[in-house]
Amino acid sequence: QVQLVESGGGLVQAGGSLRLSCVASGVIFGVYNMAWFRQAPGKEREAVAAISRNGMNKFYAESVKGRFTISRDNAKNTVYLQMNSLKSEDTAVYYCARDRSSLRVVVVPQSGEYDYWGQGTQVTVSS
Q1: pLDDT in tens, 51-85
Q2: Distance from C-alpha of 52 to C-alpha of 55, rounded to nearest angstrom
Q3: What is the C-alpha to C-alpha distance for residues 50 and 91, in angstroms, rounded to an integer?
């Protein structure tokens, strides 16, 4: 079965950096768009970034543009989220997710379009 396992979260000071990784198994990774979402306490889950299967098309939430970078290595079945200049408002549980369609060309930020999710990794930014 499909499994997504995130890692790389932790506690960091404001202005610092973290790199999240998500390794996929049980899936032909290279044919699916992938995304990172986050959910802070008391808030709805929101899309942070998404990447097309070939890495050419990307989406970023306005709040992270210029600070976060999504990338993927299809040979390693892994999607990454490099987070720089972290702010306290970036504190959340971060999840990676797989697009439910292997045919989609564009990347989409709607959580309902993703069918497999990792268990999440906590990112805490202290101010």
Answers
A1: 999 999 999 999 999 999 999 999 999 999 999 99
A2: 5
A3: 19
